[in-house]
Design brief:
The complex is a heterodimer of chains A (about 120) and B (about 160). By secondary structure, chain A is of the alpha+beta class. Chain A has six helices and three strands; from the N terminus they run αααβααββα. Chain A has a domain of about 80 residues: Winged helix-like DNA-binding domain superfamily/Winged helix DNA-binding domain (Arc Repressor Mutant, subunit A, Orthogonal Bundle), CATH 1.10.10. The relative contact order of chain A is 0.12. The C terminus of chain B is likely disordered. The chains are: A alpha+beta (about 120), B alpha+beta (about 160). At the A-B interface, α2, α3 and α6 of A face β1, β2, α1, α2 and β8 of B.
Chain lengths: ~120, ~160
């Protein structure tokens, strides 16, 4: 995992950070994980303009979180699972840290109660 | 196993972990409020933590030091942002330099803990929030390094036996 992290350049990490720091962009990614859709379908979910949604999609695209293909006159956007898998993998490692902490808590709680 | 569920949320960069213990709420609360209990579970056995300070009030800080098998220390800090005894607490957790001052270049994790009574015991829910993928990456890399050093220490002990 340490080796893999070296493959992501600082610039790429900055882009990821920037892309995921915005609530609308996180919401867009969540919707795209359910199914790919056109920019106009996406835009219908938000009160902002089509152009504003398009801008958000462009930021996500730069961070490799989503990809875009032209289909007829529409642009279809899909989530890029590789980057999200990477986030999931890191969260899994963190989950291990806490699972071990909880196991230690359980051992302490199994001891007879003390007075203090 | 006391962990009953966990949920990873890669878009929000958060992890939710739910555990249940067959004891009353007050005892689970004390795992957090009493630094002598806290230091028994916070660090891994190869990197035990000792809490030098534990100001368990809103706005208060805790400071601790984890010591590795080769004598290296990893100092860290907490800042309590909300405490509602005995049902919830929130704090930030970061790293410190060797003098104990918070290191602003290191990742900060935001933790929300809820503790509630359920049938037959107590449910504890912890949510870890990460500011960025980069921070999470660093945390995991450091954790792995500690784990590996710990494993190396155990091998040394076996060879010496």
């Amino acid at each position: 995992m340490v080796v893999e992290s070296a493959l992501l350049s600082d610039k790429h990490i900055d882009r990821l950070f920037h892309a995921l720091a915005d609530a609308t962009r996180r919401d867009i990614v969540a919707r795209l994980l359910e199914r790919e859709q056109s920019v106009s379908t996406l835009a219908a979910h938000y009160s902002m303009s089509f152009a504003a949604v398009q801008k958000h999609v462009a930021v996500l695209e730069k961070a490799s979180l989503v990809g875009k293909v032209k289909r007829g006159r529409e642009q279809i956007v899909h989530a890029d699972p590789a980057t999200l898998r990477r986030a999931t993998r890191l969260l899994t490692a963190w989950e291990g840290v806490w699972a071990e902490r909880v196991a230690r808590m359980d051992e302490i709680l199994a001891e007879p109660p003390t007075d203090h | 196993m006391p962990v009953i569920s966990s949920e990873k949320n890669p878009e929000q960069l958060s992890l939710t972990l739910v555990a249940e213990f067959p004891v009353e709420v007050g005892r689970v609360w004390r795992l957090w409020s009493d630094p002598r209990q806290l230091e028994r579970w916070w660090g891994p056995p190869t990197w035990p933590a000792s809490f030098e300070r534990h100001d368990f009030v809103v706005g208060g800080a805790a400071s601790y030091r984890m010591t590795g098998p080769d004598g290296d220390t990893a100092p860290g800090w907490w800042r309590f942002t909300a405490i509602d005894e005995p049902s919830s607490l929130e704090f930030e957790n970061g790293f410190a330099d060797q003098s104990g001052e918070p290191d602003p270049t290191m990742p900060i994790t935001r933790m929300v803990v809820t503790i509630e009574a359920v049938d037959g015991g107590t449910r504890m829910t912890t949510v870890s929030h990460f500011a960025s993928l980069e921070q999470l990456d660093r945390l995991v890399a450091m954790g792995m390094e500690e784990g590996l050093r710990g494993a190396a220490g155990q091998i040394d002990a076996l060879l010496a036996a």
